[in-house]
Amino acid sequence: MLDAILSAQCARGLTAAPGPSAIPAGLYELFLENVVLPCRIGVFDYERDAPQRVRIDLLLQVRQDGAQFSDDIGDVLSYDDLLSGLKRILMDEHTNLVEMLAEKIARMCLAHEQVQSARVSVAKLDIYDGVAVPGIRLERTRDQMPGQSPPASRRPLAMADRRI
């Protein structure tokens, strides 16, 4: 019976979570999930008139400096910095496509020098009357963004300067 369930899951693309070997040595995964915020997004006139809710999920591979973690917030990538960056992007100008929004978010994540890769998922929650939730998932790596240097207004905030 278990074999039949696992075979059905594999056929639908649902497999067990990868084991410890899926994360390369010297990296750790940081996630920020189910971030639901208003966003001005869409190509239709009614989508330009009012913000709609989007759900964003981030999964980042982050370089760990040193063999072990310290208990100092300054030694890790802050969830607060990521959430502040998301809010800045979503409050920015109107974006037509979820693909472009996901790309902007991936670039913001990779602007943090210790982030090696970013998997970004963006879903539009307020269309199709709850029957379906459309969205996109993409992954970008540091080597795909050569020379990417964000403008000063988009650089990660220092802990002391952060305001949410």
From TrEMBL:
SUPFAM superfamilies: Tetrahydrobiopterin biosynthesis enzymes-like. Gene3D superfamilies: 3.30.1130.10. Pathway: Cofactor biosynthesis; tetrahydrofolate biosynthesis; 2-amino-4-hydroxy-6-hydroxymethyl-7,8-dihydropteridine diphosphate from 7,8-dihydroneopterin triphosphate: step 3/4. Its EC number is 4.1.2.25. It catalyses: 7,8-dihydroneopterin = 6-hydroxymethyl-7,8-dihydropterin + glycolaldehyde. Residues 30-140 form the Dihydroneopterin aldolase/epimerase domain. Residues 139-164 are annotated as: Disordered. GO terms for biological process: folic acid biosynthetic process. The keyword tRNA processing does not apply. InterPro entries: Dihydroneopterin_aldolase, FolB_dom, GTP-CH-I_C/QueF. It comes from the Bacteria. It is an enzyme of class 4 (lyase). Keywords: Folate biosynthesis, Lyase. GO terms for cellular component: cytoplasm. GO terms for molecular function: dihydroneopterin aldolase activity. NCBIfam families: folB_dom (TIGR00526). Belongs to the DHNA family. PANTHER family: DIHYDRONEOPTERIN ALDOLASE 1-RELATED (PTHR42844:SF1). This is dihydroneopterin aldolase. The lineage of its organism: Bacteria, Pseudomonadati, Pseudomonadota, Alphaproteobacteria, Rhodospirillales.
